[in-house]
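ok here's GLPGLI family protein:
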Amino acid sequence: MKRILIFFFLLPLFAKSQQHFFSSVKVEYEKTIYIHQLAKEIDQEWYDWIKDKMPAANISYFDMVADTSQSLFKPGRELPGKKQGFMDISETKNQVYTNFKTGKVNSLKPVFEETFQVEDSLARIKWKLTADTRVIAGFECRKAVGILDDSVGVFAFYTDEIMVPGGPESIHGLPGLILGMGIPRLHATWFATKVEVNGVNLSAVKAPVGKGKKTNKVELHQQLDKVLRNWGNYGGKMVVNFII
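and the structure:
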């Protein structure tokens, strides 16, 4: 009986020791914007106009390559036959380089007719871990809820098997890679569809190069406020969309 009790006591420790941990990764994320929900929240007349003219959701893809010190998040594959719609003019072209060691983020962000080179520190995100779990792309993930810059709610599912403290866009700060994420205010989610952890090529992980106006997040926020202040509720959501 004593041996049986010892066996069951050691079993969880043995299982944990068999868990694999990875320090580099390539991920494909599927981003979904729930257009009908977003439109209905902003303006009922707008929703009535678009509900039969636009799909309920807009899907786009992003790739992220990363290790424990840095990551690059950029546009991925195009959907065959997809027509560019009103909701994906700018947000599907973001390129975001994050250096976890220096705490800096370099981004190329197309905003309507202009492109901005945004250099700033990692965003402030207050996280609270929960007991909820789900499997994403074959990895068991734990749910966390957070507040971005003291104002924007976000939920995320991360796996501690991949030791990269980042995720889609510039979201970061959890003890493992974020494989699923949502920002309710934007009616948008990002979920991993493919994950590669072996033989990952990190040579392209560097700050994006391109022409654009150099700025930081505060200055970009101020410029967007000037342009979008008369757009009502939708304008406020677009500001959040461009600065995450």
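+1. The chain has one domain: 19-216.
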